Amino acid sequence: MSLGAQIWGDLGELVGTPWSVRNGRVVPEPEDVKLFPNDAVKLDAVYFYADLIGSTKLARDFSWQTAGKVIRAALRTASTIIKSYGGEIRSYDGDRVMAIFLEGARNTTAAECALKINYAMQYMVQPSLYAELPDLERAEFAVRMNMGIASGEAYVTRAGVRGTSDLVSIGRAPNVAAKLSDIRDAEYYYRTYITESVYQSLLDPSKFDNDGSDMWRRFVTEVGGERMITYRSSYTWGIV
């Protein structure tokens, strides 16, 4: 079969076949979703992205060995925290990780997870890296991650070719969460961004600090061409 015939055949099957959709109670694995025909699992979930800040500077100004240790340390630590909160990690994309939360008070769980990642980057990962890689400290490279959290319906399907395919999530929640993790404020002060619906679903321990002050600040910004009410936080949540 020629390359052109293969592409036309795939397009005919992908575009011309109706979707087969089922409700999901757990986050699917790749083998749970068919590549052909159009198969999807519908989830009502919280999507969570944690994105390492400054990776372009890291690659430009430091050796690959140093950059590799920073990226691996940040992703490993964030992933460990996500897993401890029951998050299901479904992708790594260079310097960021994506997870899905389904169970219980999932908005609150995801928010607490983000605040703990913020703590870990500042008070665990950065000191460990500075101790072994003093060039990072001399260059004042801050090891930080930005977190984006959004909730809602999404459809999990597979994309790619046989032998080289992966799950992709289609819907507003995964798209908005990814965009929120890309926000960079001028002072590099706020680290966690959540949608208004996530904020409204937070339980008090993840909304207010010990003094009763709101840990989140209302923030109107453009997300994917849309003006959106979001909330952002600079708080950390300690780890023992």
Task: Explain what this protein looks like in three dimensions.
- The chain has 240 residues and is of the alpha+beta class.
- It has a single domain, classed as Nucleotide cyclase, GGDEF domain (Alpha-Beta Plaits).
- 38% of the residues lie in helices and 30% in strands.
- It is built from 7 helices and 9 strands; from the N terminus they run H-E-E-H-H-E-E-H-H-E-E-H-E-H-E-E.
- Strands 1, 2, 3, 4, 5, 6, 7, 8 and 9 form a 9-stranded mixed β-sheet that branches.
- A hairpin with a 2-residue loop joins strand 5 and strand 6.
- Helix 3 runs antiparallel to helix 4.
- The chain is globular, with a radius of gyration of 20 Å.
- The protein starts with a helix and ends in a 7-residue tail after the last strand.
- 36% of the residues are buried.
Strand content: 25-35%
The total beta strand count reads 9
Q: Report the order of strands and helices.
A: HEEHHEEHHEEHEHEE
Helix count, DSSP H or I runs of 4 or more residues: 7
Unreliable spans: none
- The coarse overall form would be globular
- The pLDDT mean sits at 94
CATH classification, class level: Alpha Beta
Radius of gyration: 20 Å
Distance between the termini: 59 Å
- How many domains in all? 1
Per-chain topology:
Elements: H1 3-16, E1 20-23, E2 39-52, H2 55-61, H3 64-84, E3 88-93, E4 96-101, H4 106-132, H5 134-138, E5 145-161, E6 164-170, H6 172-181, E7 192-195, H7 196-201, E8 217-223, E9 226-233
Put the structure in a nutshell:
38% of the residues lie in helices and 30% in strands.
